[in-house]
Structures are given as structure tokens and as C-alpha cells.
Design goal:
By secondary structure, the chain is mostly helical. The protein has three helices and no strands. The radius of gyration is 42 Å and the shape is flat.
Length: 96
């Protein structure tokens, strides 16, 4: 069932895209004939000169307020590393 539905959807997508790509050949020929009567010629290169234009202005920046807050507190570590495990080792030996 799923394969059939998937195949039908795939065929409809391909068919609709193929129909969208076709165009009428006679309509393009008549439009080409109409545009050939009114031809427009452009220069090969167009150069614009902006040297004579004077630009005046100021730099626009948003109003900025400096917000200061409290710094994060610095705490000492509550975990202290042991320098020796000897008392615990002696207790374990005594319990044996």
C-alpha cells in the first residue's frame, strides 16, 4: 500500500513539473517578432562619475548606557586535599 502511494506521489510530482516546463512555441515566435520591430541598443560599457558629488553627514550611533553590575564572587574551595592517608590505613589494619 505504501509503495503504491509513494509511486503515485512520485509520478504526480514528476508529471506536474514536466507540465510546468512546457511553453507555447507560437507565442514566443510572435513575441520575438513584436520585439524585433522595437530594438533597444545599449552601450558596451557605462561609466558613472561621482567625483563632483559632495557627501556630507555624521556618524550615527545608538545611545549607549554602560551598565555595571556586581562581579562574580570568588570563593575558596571547601574541599581540602589530604596530605596522608596513613591514619585510615592503620585503622583498617587493626580491624583485620
Amino acid at each position: 500500500m505504501r509503495k503504491t502511494l509513494l509511486t503515485a506521489m512520485l509520478v504526480s510530482v514528476i508529471a506536474s513539473s514536466a507540465l510546468a516546463q512546457t511553453h507555447d512555441r507560437t507565442a514566443t515566435r510572435t513575441s520575438e517578432a513584436a520585439t524585433s520591430a522595437h530594438t533597444i541598443a545599449y552601450k558596451e560599457r557605462t561609466q558613472y562619475d561621482f567625483d563632483a558629488d559632495e557627501v556630507e553627514g555624521t556618524v550615527v550611533q545608538p545611545d549607549v548606557d554602560l551598565i555595571t553590575g556586581r562581579l562574580k564572587a570568588q570563593h575558596q574551595s571547601l574541599v581540602r586535599p589530604r596530605s596522608s592517608f596513613q591514619p585510615e590505613l592503620l585503622q583498617s589494619v587493626d580491624s583485620l
